[in-house]
Amino acid sequence: MESTALLTDQYELTMVQAALRSGAAHRRCTFEVFSRKLPAGRRYGVVAGTGRMLEGLEQFRFGQAELDYLDSQKIVDDDTLQFLANYRFSGEITGYAEGEVYLPHSPVLQVTASFAEACLLETFVLSVMNHDSAVAAAGSRMTMAADGRPCVEMGSRRTQEYAATAAARTAAVVGFAATSNLEAGRRWGIPTLGTAAHAFTLLHDSEEEAFAAQVEAFGPGTTLLVDTYEVEPAVRKAVEIAGPELGAVRLDSGDLVEQAHEVRKLLDSLGNNNTKIIVSSDLDEHAIARLAAAPVDSYGVGTRLVIGSGSPTASMVYKLVERAEAGAEPVSVEKASAGKASTGGKKQALRSLDDHGRAEAEVISARGPLADAGYVGRQLQVPLVVDGEVQPGFTGAEGVQQATQRHRDSLAELPSDAHRLSDGDPVIPTIFR
Amino acid sequence: MESTALLTDQYELTMVQAALRSGAAHRRCTFEVFSRKLPAGRRYGVVAGTGRMLEGLEQFRFGQAELDYLDSQKIVDDDTLQFLANYRFSGEITGYAEGEVYLPHSPVLQVTASFAEACLLETFVLSVMNHDSAVAAAGSRMTMAADGRPCVEMGSRRTQEYAATAAARTAAVVGFAATSNLEAGRRWGIPTLGTAAHAFTLLHDSEEEAFAAQVEAFGPGTTLLVDTYEVEPAVRKAVEIAGPELGAVRLDSGDLVEQAHEVRKLLDSLGNNNTKIIVSSDLDEHAIARLAAAPVDSYGVGTRLVIGSGSPTASMVYKLVERAEAGAEPVSVEKASAGKASTGGKKQALRSLDDHGRAEAEVISARGPLADAGYVGRQLQVPLVVDGEVQPGFTGAEGVQQATQRHRDSLAELPSDAHRLSDGDPVIPTIFR
């Protein structure tokens, strides 16, 4: 099992060294993960990456190879190396479960442990959550715009190879039906899809030969790519070769709305009423919405999903909000940096709901249980790690399935403004009390 | 060694199956990697990721675990599994070496092998090159704007955890002096840096205690972060505690230009003329340029670098341009898809230079050696893989060092317009002949 412990900024380790020296390393601390704002123009955010983060937490160990590197570069001293050699997160992580909607300042994660234990996780936790949540926020709008038509994630080639795998997983959380990425299929049991690219047509002496080869290998139910040369003759050849059972044709270029109508008419005229039309080619939520009235059966989404459709990273931060000496009351702490001030104290969060179960506000407080203050709604924070043990249901294939269901439920609770694709304010306000 | 073989789109494998069945899998093919355009508004592109791609190529093997997954999901048939089990790239890869500048349509890579061998690499090659080249294009403008002042990469928390490591490596290629990312330090020998975050100050009972703890652990030459509360008193405390040897102070919020002037004046008035000023906080190439006249000693660059400063992915594609039956002449192939047409034939590329060695044009031809046609300049393509063997000098720490030098040289050759940060056309034209 590969260690994730060096997927981190050096200063997490040097802070541990200095705090071990000053004696403050053992103070019990709570760090909170939150974002001051949503991705530009978005109505809601989506918590994603939680399952991957918890999987990585179990591999966050400094083995001999990691320690040797740190020692060889004199990055930390011997006492710190000794601490790292024994490191195993033994604290608590509480937070919004994966798939849950979040708003500005939602306390999406709280990590409580000794300073040294919790500090070490900062970079890794933020890398996972910021990437996956950015992809999720974009992807959720895409499946919403697709309004029930299946979306397939196919953006691997447009992002770093492991980010691709994470993006494919995140796509599943926000309702994509399948991915082209095999590693995501293997790791999290996500359905995978894929048939052929233009190169397969170009490889053969003619488009007919290529289609015949593909049908021979995968049967008539396969998807034939019909825009390598001219679309209309290609559709005719496809039907001629695969017959009435032809599964689907894919269009990957040009004006998709116009072509979808023409191809549908042509397929129907040839008797292929059950042959589906799949479109791809730089689709984003807006392009999908424009295709709503076109006879399209599913969407292949690539680049725009994996780069967060204009917002490739969420702006979540990991801030110390509370510290306590052993046996003493916690002290609330906050920084005053211009434009980056934080609010001290461990927060509780509740999504207040009206009589119809519709979300009204995100209520956040560092002053004790919100239910006691008369707020009615849904408690958003659940235990993810207890005494260092990752709780069941959040990782692996099960974690993805649960997150997918949770996202659907969380979205269904939002006011209908959540469906608007135009830039706007958060769909419900954040209230501090 | 972890396999990279499933970091791929499913259709690469299904195409192999269908081509094995049709007999075309063994045709000798050349795929070319190129981009139709540069990232929006950029004057030049930067080839990056080549070293990582070659490292991953050596791990691109289907082991039992990968084969079991493919078999369990019935993704390909037994003949194809057999082919994959024996897969080892045995062909040729030629291309622009890492760090080299590229222009629209530059043939940055050519992969020549049987269709089956070359097709399988498409997704992996593009994932690596598209991500790293996007980061490189952004980062190159940042080091250019910094004009000799060191830049330090610290964006890990804003991108997927392995993309972070790749971004840190790419930053080194385009001239960043160091990174905060430890895994990049370990893998490629890149210098790492880091001292403390705001949390370290908040952890202690006072800013004085935190500064004292840090100086105690790392000596007075350390960098103290002075904007957790108020900057001016913090700088005074820092000097009082660390003395005249204080290495640097870091500013991470607010108006950096104004603060840099004030802090410099204050440090000098306290006799700390040698204490440096490091600034961070959402810097990009434009912010760095605005700080050119401010008394800043180095730049910490995070988010904007790792997300490609507005262009998080390059738009490189992997297109079949030539195929040949055994013993026969190669046939040039190209697709006609609307807006995505390709040009057939294996291309040669030359950067034509004037009498002063200044780049004038990118000359590309599928019709034979350009030197024979009277073009004077620099041949851009070098052998990266010969008979399946990765050539020396492109991978590991050496690969990064060579790429860094190559990028500097390649940039020095460009006309001065390359230095303009405003949106514009490519700095030299691409000429086809």
TrEMBL record, chains A, B:
What does it do? Catalyzes the first step in the biosynthesis of NAD from nicotinic acid, the ATP-dependent synthesis of beta-nicotinate D-ribonucleotide from nicotinate and 5-phospho-D-ribose 1-phosphate.
Record domain Nicotinate/nicotinamide phosphoribosyltransferase: where: 151-342
**Which keywords label this protein?**
Glycosyltransferase, Ligase, Phosphoprotein, Pyridine nucleotide biosynthesis, Transferase
Q: Which Pfam families match?
A: NAPRTase, NAPRTase_N
Enzyme Commission number(s) from the entry: 6.3.4.21
Q: Which residues form the Nicotinate phosphoribosyltransferase N-terminal domain?
A: 6-130
Query: Recorded GO terms, molecular function?
Result: glycosyltransferase activity; nicotinate phosphoribosyltransferase activity
Q: Name one GO cellular component term.
A: cytosol
How would you describe the post-translational modification of this protein?
Answer: Transiently phosphorylated on a His residue during the reaction cycle. Phosphorylation strongly increases the affinity for substrates and increases the rate of nicotinate D-ribonucleotide production. Dephosphorylation regenerates the low-affinity form of the enzyme, leading to product release.
Spell out the CDD domains in the cross-references: NAPRTase_A
The UniProt entry's sequence similarity note says: Belongs to the NAPRTase family.
Coiled-coil residue windows: none
Which biological processes are named by the entry's GO terms? NAD+ biosynthetic process via the salvage pathway
- Write out the catalysed reaction: 5-phospho-alpha-D-ribose 1-diphosphate + nicotinate + ATP + H2O = nicotinate beta-D-ribonucleotide + ADP + phosphate + diphosphate
Top EC class for this record: ligase
Map out region (Disordered) in residue numbers.
329-348
Q: What is this protein called?
A: Nicotinate phosphoribosyltransferase
Give the pathway listed in the UniProt entry for this protein: Cofactor biosynthesis; NAD(+) biosynthesis; nicotinate D-ribonucleotide from nicotinate: step 1/1
